[in-house]
Amino acid sequence: MESPIPDYLNRVLEATRPLESGQPAGYIETLAKADTSKLAVALAMVDGTIYSAGDDQVEFSIQSISKAFVYALAIDDAGLDKVLEKIGVEPSGGAYNGIPVSVDRSTSRPMNPMINAGAIAAHALVVGPNATVEERTDRILKALSRLAGRQLHVDETVYEDELKDSGRNMGIAYILKAAGFIECDPQDAVKGYIRQCAINVNVRDLAMMAATLCNGGKQPISGDQIFPQQSVRQVLSVMTTCGMYDAAGTWVANVGIPAKSGVAGGIIGALPGQLGIAAFSPKLDKKGNSVRGVAICEKMSRDMGLHMMDASQISRSTVRVSVAIIEAGGGKGKPVEKRKVIIFSLKGAVRFTGLERLSRTIAHELSPPTPEHPDAGKHRDAYAVVISLREVYSLNKIARQILHDDIQRLLIEGRRVIVIDPTTALRMETVKDENSFHIVSYEAEARDFIGGSGCKLNPSSDLW
Q1: In the predicted structure, residue 101 carries a pLDDT above the cut 70
Q2: Where residue 94 falls among pLDDT bands split at 50, 70, 90?
Q3: How far apart are CA 428 and CA 419, in angstroms?
């Protein structure tokens, strides 16, 4: 059976195709002549699966979308503290290429890395202050190619056309040089910046690049850790507040996905932990964003519930509690012993809120009743506590630490604890008292530890 997702993407394109407002970027000759009928969209999942529709093989220059990835490279090469000395993180409230509003009026520091002043400063930090134009552009081209999963190239025609009309960017670069925010030659910084903007991509490339950001900096197909997770968090944060220029507030309200646009008509959206989106249509609105691209992203966000502030699906069923009775003994005249087991089952990608709920549930079920919680402690007499991670995809760092602490506290209380962890999400070594704590992969192993190899399970339990 074929996936219905490409059909849905085609319907999204047909819904937005009638929009005719906007104009292609007129100040770059190649872009001014772009075929404005071209329209494409792509989705890339964090596991590497990709879906696309429309003119998904048509290449166009990445333009300002490169700013997000070069910012990450600058952090990698210079360190976040150095980058923050040179580039701020506040929205500029003005045009992406404006001189008066693109730098702080008191310090001349660029307002953020998503406008031209900040992007030129970020470019100058790649590799190092003494690097050549060729060394910086080579580093950037190789990194963007790894993100896309294929070799990308620079469109030399676009590069030459942009270089002809680079006076405004040259002016910005000289202001930055005079104020000490770039150390290299201003002309070299601008030439390198323009060259990074002239790298050609298609929407499938961009979706995969965005999915790498969603995947904590790890390329979904190759598995290469291209950016550290902390760098990705910084990039996505600035994309959220500044990525769509002075339309960022409207974008966050209507779409709610960290994003970046480019004047060739491309847009990327990166929803952390879920998927990367890319859209392409050359006609731009007055803010410099693709008219149809914005409409595509707005529709998909509404249809698919992608807004990062959407609380329509609150996690209230992360933890499931059940009880099983295991019959142990009974052989050679020995009496049958019925052992109550309380099972706490977690599900999904578990973060702090999921583990907080588990901790609270464990305390409620096993602690003595109080005036505030008279119904607590119903299973204080449990012979063993089982924590099942069978349906857990991942535990983040804080969730794992809380679960470690929960287990240690249960053991201190003298309880037998068994963790079912087939994917080794817990990452915890067996504690010293191996009679009280076990990590197993399957339910059958847990039953054996609780009741012995000849144990029987009460048929009223449906968990095992």
Answers
A1: no
A2: low
A3: 10
**CA distances, 220 to each of 44, 225, 263, 454 (Å):** 9, 9, 27, 45
Cα gap 123→149, rounded to integer Å: 22
Confidence of residue 457 (pLDDT cuts 50, 70, 90): very low
Which residue type occupies 388?
Answer: S
The single-letter DSSP state of residue 243 is T
Cβ(206)–Cβ(60) below 8 Å: no
CA pair distance 69, 222, nearest whole angstrom: 18
Rounded Cα distance between 317 and 320, Å, is 7
Token pair 């995969």 in the structure block, residue: 208
Q: What is the pLDDT of residues 258-268, one digit of tens each?
A: 999 999 999 99
| Phi, psi values for residue 199, rounded to 5° | -70, 130
3-state SS assignment for residue 428: coil
Q: What is the pLDDT of residues 370-390, one digit of tens each?
A: 888 888 888 999 999 999 999
Contact 365, 376 (CB under 8 A): yes
**Identity of the residue numbered 317:** S
Q: What domains can be seen in the chain, in order of their start residue? A: 5-304 (3.40.710.10), 319-457 (3.30.750.24)
Nearest to 423 by CA among 358, 360, 347: 347
Rounded to the nearest 10 degrees, the angle between the axes of helix 186-197 and helix 133-148 is: 20
Q: pTM of the predicted model, to two decimals?
A: 0.79
Q: DSSP character for 58? A: -
Nearest to 283 by CA among 259, 298, 263: 263
Of 100-104, 258-262, 292-296, 349-353, which gets the smallest average pLDDT?
Answer: 100-104
Residue 115, token pair as written in the block: 């406008």
